[in-house]
Amino acid sequence: MSAAAALPPRCASTRADLPGLDGHELSTRRATELRSHLAECADCAALASSFRTVRRTLADLHHVSAAPPEGLLDSILDRTAAPTVVEKAAVLGRGAVSGARPKVIAAGAGIGAVATVGAGLLAWRALRARRATA
Fold it and tell me: Is residue 13 located within the same domain as residue 58?
């Protein structure tokens, strides 16, 4: 049984609405109900406090400078300019990986289709011959 299933119904409904409490996303009536429950229930109040902490931390993140390290763009461009193992294999296989041989692929598909139709025709004739003798 999960922890949410073991909660009393009032705690479960309160916890479901906690993320909207400080964001002013709830109706005034529902926000009042939640605050009333939080005044009575220590577990839900602790959870609400952790929601507020997370919300404040996320709100403060926009003040953090997030400049990339010097030379990062040049490093990425250098790495992407060099061919990868898969790209090298594609060149060696002359299209085996990249699909650069459409005529070979079409011929293979055609041969496969003819073989499938032929097998089906043989099976149909064998079944028809069995039914004729039965």
Answer: yes
Please answer whether residues 37 and 14 qualify as being in contact, where contact means their C-beta atoms are separated by less than 8 angstroms.
yes
Report which secondary-structure segment, H or E, holds 29.
Answer: helix 28-40
Residues 87 and 129 in one domain: yes
User: What's the predicted TM-score (pTM) here?
Assistant: 0.44
Confidence (pLDDT) at 100: 56
Report the pLDDT value the prediction gives residue 73, as an integer from 0 to 100: 86
Above 80 in pLDDT, residue 25? yes
Beta strands in the chain (DSSP E): none
As a whole number of angstroms, the distance between CA 58 and CA 61 comes to: 5
Return d(Cα 120, Cα 106) in angstroms, integer: 21
Question: CA angle 67-73-76, nearest 5°?
Answer: 130
